[in-house]
Amino acid sequence: MSRIQTTFEQLNGSKALVSYITAGDPDLRTTLSLMHSLAANGADILELGIPFSDPMADGPTIQRAAERALAQGVSLKDVLALVAEFRQSNAATPVVLMGYLNPVHKMGYTAFAQAAAAAGVDGVLTVDSPVETIAPLHEALKQQGIDCIFLVAPTTTEARIQTIASLASGFVYYVSLKGVTGSAQLDTEAVSRKIELLRKHIDIPIGVGFGISDAESARKIATVADAVIVGSRIVNEIERNPGNEAAAAGALAKTLKNAIS
Question: Does the annotation count 58 as an active-site position?
Answer without folding.
Answer: yes
